[in-house]
From TrEMBL:
It holds the Pfam family Glyco_hydro_1. This is Beta-glucosidase. Keywords: Glycosidase, Hydrolase. It comes from the Bacteria. InterPro entries: GH, GH_1_N_CS, Glyco_hydro_1. Belongs to the glycosyl hydrolase 1 family. PROSITE patterns: GLYCOSYL_HYDROL_F1_2. PANTHER family: GLYCOSYL HYDROLASE, LP05116P.
Length: 487
């Protein structure tokens, strides 16, 4: 997938210059925006769709702010044509969206659902008609409930069902979709879903979380094979992860060890098997009291270690970690993943997450664009010159429509600008970054936060479903048109 946007020449002073300049991106750089099925589609039980784990989880009292759910969300299912027109108006070259497994294949196995596939086929056709390239993500956290009832990601059978689902989707959409992503942020699915329980299915089973991480890796590998068996030769397959830029509180050995532990649990547990064909030895040692890792069967790592055409990187903020203080309990939520009596940091539950200075986003997350640059440089250094794309990057703020009908969000504009500068710095340093997808196109159902957090560059009035392009959306359109950012 490539879009031909015009390049704008700018000042050629060094990257370290304090003077702002127009930072021109490669002429084939892809500019897009992203959403996820359960967060925007609504129509939860229309057209043959059955329940996902998020339909179930959001109905458990106390799990989601205000008892919200995705039954209606941003009603993208019924309003996709208007939303695609918005995308075209912003000049987007690509739209990254996920399929609802429960809509495509109710129950997660067996015969496909013609109505569900028809919806996505119409969406793809509408995008192409408006000059927006579709980028499909097969799994963005909404496992069919029936598969969870059979063991969920704790069962390797789910990986096999995923490969079958991938083939179904590719058979129907592969003639028009050139870029496919298997999974979005498997770390969240495994550790927020099965360890801390702040995400669906809401379980607190650390050993199962490790199993889930492996079975998600296996699903990626088997799904990649299934896609390539069904897709035209020119199609590309990607994986999207949410690696952390992990910074130790100090250079003391105990703080360095805390950073190592978090890096193993969030980054290398996925990057190493996919890109190197092995699990990190230190990760296995850190978790040896929980499991012997015998769920990794002969041949699994060969299935996982298949070449990817693109690695998607989702980034919001860096983390600073330190060694535990004797007698102190970890502060709930300070790691940015929601408050819980249970930790997602399996085997390293006592690591401290340090609050960073400065005004945070509405999520309580720190703002530090240098973390994105440093993360991209690290991936390039440690894993080689693999093509990358920023598949999510954005921020929630307290947006509202003013009396004049405008939504002014200067904090988001500055957030996006600084992070695009960071991406450009990484490109100048030799990192092969092919595109950028802001999170998100629309305000949406923000998982356990319900509708209380707004990430969109387009404001959604959930009572009326009225869309209003925010100042950040108009700013982003100008960046896309110029193919450059000031900084």
């Amino acid at each position: 997938m490539r879009t031909g946007t015009r390049a704008v020449s700018g000042d050629t002073s060094s990257a370290g210059s304090r003077r702002a300049r127009a930072r021109a991106f490669p002429t084939d750089f892809v500019w897009g925006a992203a959403t996820a099925a359960y967060q925007v589609e609504g129509a939860s039980f229309d057209g043959g769709r059955t329940a996902s784990i998020w339909d179930t989880f959001s109905r458990v009292p106390g799990k989601v702010v205000n008892g919200d759910n995705g039954d209606i969300a941003a009603d993208h299912y019924h309003r996709f044509r208007d939303d695609v027109a918005l995308m075209a108006g912003l000049g987007l070259g690509a739209y990254r969206f996920s399929l609802s497994w429960s809509r495509v294949q109710p129950g997660g196995q067996g015969a496909p659902n013609p109505a569900g596939l028809d919806f996505y086929s119409r969406l793809v056709d509408e995008l192409l008609a408006k000059g927006v390239q579709p980028v499909v993500t097969l799994y963005h956290w909404d496992l069919p409930q029936e598969l969870e009832d059979a063991g969920g990601w704790g069962s390797r059978t789910t990986s096999e069902r995923f490969a079958e689902y991938a083939a179904v989707a590719a058979d129907r959409l592969g003639d028009r979709v050139e870029l496919w992503t298997t999974l979005n942020e498997p770390w969240c699915s495994a550790f927020l879903g099965y360890a801390s329980g702040v995400h669906a299915p809401g379980r607190h089973e650390p050993e199962v979380a490790l199993r889930a991480a492996h079975h998600l890796n296996l699903a990626h590998g088997l799904g990649t094979q299934a896609l390539r068996a069904s897709l035209p030769a020119g199609a590309r397959v990607a994986l999207t992860v949410n690696p952390a830029e992990v910074r130790p509180l100090s250079q003391e050995p105990a703080d360095l060890d805390a950073a190592r532990r978090v890096d193993a649990l969030q980054n290398r547990i996925f990057l190493d098997p996919v890109l190197r064909g092995s699990y990190p030895e230190d990760l296995m040692q850190d978790t040896a009291h929980l499991t012997d890792w015998s769920f990794v069967q002969d041949g699994d790592l060969s299935s996982i270690h298949v070449p990817v055409d693109l690695l998607g990187v989702n980034y919001y903020n860096p983390v600073v970690v330190g060694a535990p203080i004797v007698g102190d309990a970890p502060e709930p939520g300070v790691d940015g993943h929601g408050a819980s009596d249970f930790s997602p940091w399996v085997g390293s539950e006592s690591v401290r997450f340090i609050r960073m200075p400065g005004e945070p986003t509405a999520m309580g997350w720190p703002i530090d664009a240098s973390g994105l640059r440093d993360l991209l440089l690290r991936i390039h250094r440690d894993y080689g010159p693999i093509p990358l794309a920023i598949t999510e990057n954005g921020a929630a703020f307290h947006d509202y429509v003013g009396p004049d009908g405008e939504v002014r969000d200067p904090q988001r504009v500055e957030y996006l600008r600084s992070h695009l500068v960071a991406v450009h710095e990484a490109i100048e340093a030799g990192v092969d970054v092919r595109g950028y997808f802001c999170w998100s196109l629309l305000d949406n159902f923000e998982w356990a936060y319900g509708y209380s957090k707004r990430f969109g560059v387009v404001h959604v009035d959930f009572a009326t479903q009225r869309r209003t392009v925010k100042a950040s959306g108009n700013w982003y359109a100008d960046v896309i048109e110029a193919n450059a950012v000031q900084g």
